[in-house]
Design brief:
homodimer; 277 residues; alpha/beta; TIM Barrel; 15% strand
């Protein structure tokens, strides 16, 4: 999916919601365990119940790899039923030397046919650029993450000698590797106060914002500092949507939570962007 | 496998060789394609031919994920036939927020039963510590990698304001997360000149050294600056061993290359450590 198509989907649905399919076999409703592939059935019902409310779906690979090749099979089946028009993100945080990153790109963009993958920046340009060689596919580079460990290196004890945090240098250097048409950045919702500075470095790249919901980030803060004319945000919620219920009506309950966020987002779009689509 | 057991294997085999199973279906000998699982058959023959010469085996996940769930199946089968006594490393370069890293740990330490996993440090302490909670399992944290992109952030344009490179800060901060019994570090063989400084920060942790062979690193340099009383090194070679031949005798040719490195290593052990085991 290209940038224009993504923006059109956001307009059409009045939403920039990304739903994180962190589907853990030990946490899904018990009645699903009778299915041959409980994780797939869980995902299927969540997708069916929320597809008109979200513009992106983001499975985190850890939850599938925990099941080994069986987990990967559930993921492959899930990808096949995600409706066209929904932007698919492999939250995989990969990155390796050049030829190896090229194989990861093949795995996620060709074998699994994701639109985007999250990538870790530590290994530098040649670990990221192989992902940027696929048409209408996206790198979502980790910049400033939502967890406490972001204070170890990203915005840690020491700044860089140019007076900037590591995450600022990551943004400034990496923005030249791609364009606003194939690079997004991860910025945690718990880091909303940093968004103003981040927008000075990368005014137009889309940001993937996790951490709203269970992790405590505020949607309003995120929009205040991060939203742009063409929206420029994908805000993710995982646990607070997918585990909203644990009975037979879990998918309806997930819909209720997704709808709450979508309505809030529609309000932000109207208020902050000053437009009525 | 614990540290003592690993050191005993190094002594017994007079080798600190790690063989990287970067097994790419498009590069393995053509006659193997008639097998139901060509990648597994390739790995099986390589392992059989080299198991007395190496102390560690390191599949890089990208090569398996490129095949999707089928690739993961080949990896699972491979893990099951690696002989006891060989230290197994998942070269996966994972790392995510705490509960998610915990699931990656489960995937690699329990589902696949690896001894160790490579982890990227960018997300900080809570992305690494969940991996350290498993008995006799290891984190191998990326410190200074062998690729050109290491010059973007790890040892890049800017030092940190404390006068150190990012990779030095990563070593100094992260060494307190674990112990020499559960943490190793990745240092590229192409970075041998930095090993002297690295050994001042982490004198006793084992180092996993990729980049000897196809990437051009020198074993002698690595040993000169990195080797310690209890060896402290695992030196990896992937392509120059596993793709030494492309005919029916590919495994014998791989053995010849592995043997050359093992003999060189035995010499280093004798010369640099001043001992005859």
């Amino acid at each position: 999916m290209n940038r224009e198509q993504l923006i059109n989907e956001i307009k059409k649905k009045n939403s920039f919601l990304c739903i994180g399919l962190d589907s853990d076999k030990s946490k899904i409703p018990k009645h699903l365990l009778k299915y041959k592939d409980p994780v797939f059935e869980f995902n299927r019902q969540i997708i069916e119940a929320t597809q008109d409310l979200c513009v992106a779906i983001k499975p985190n690979l850890a939850f599938y790899e925990a099941g080994g090749s069986t987990g990967w099979k559930s993921l492959e089946k899930t990808l096949k039923i995600i409706p066209k028009g929904i932007f698919t993100i492999a939250d995989a945080k990969r990155g390796d030397i050049g030829n190896t990153s090229g194989l990861y790109a093949k795995a996620f963009f060709e074998t699994l046919n994701f639109d985007a993958i999250t990538v870790a920046p530590y290994m530098g340009s040649d670990s990221v650029i192989p992902f940027l060689k696929f048409k209408d596919k996206w790198v979502i580079l980790l910049a400033l993450t939502s967890n406490a460990g972001a204070n170890d290196f990203q915005m840690g004890k020491h700044k860089m000698e140019n007076g900037k945090w590591l995450f600022q240098n990551v943004l400034e250097i990496s923005k030249h590797w791609g364009t606003v048409e194939n690079m997004m950045y991860v910025v945690g919702a718990t880091q909303a106060s940093a968004l103003k500075e981040i927008r000075k470095i990368i005014p137009n790249n889309f940001l993937l914002i996790p951490g709203v919901g269970a992790q405590g980030g505020s949607l309003e803060e995120v929009c205040k500092y991060g939203m742009k004319k063409e929206c420029g945000l994908l805000v993710n919620s995982s646990r607070s949507i997918i585990y909203a219920g644990d009975g037979k009506d879990f998918a309806e309950k997930a819909r209720v939570e997704a709808k709450k966020l979508q309505i809030e987002m529609a309000g932000m779009i109207k208020m902050k962007m000053g437009i009525k689509w």
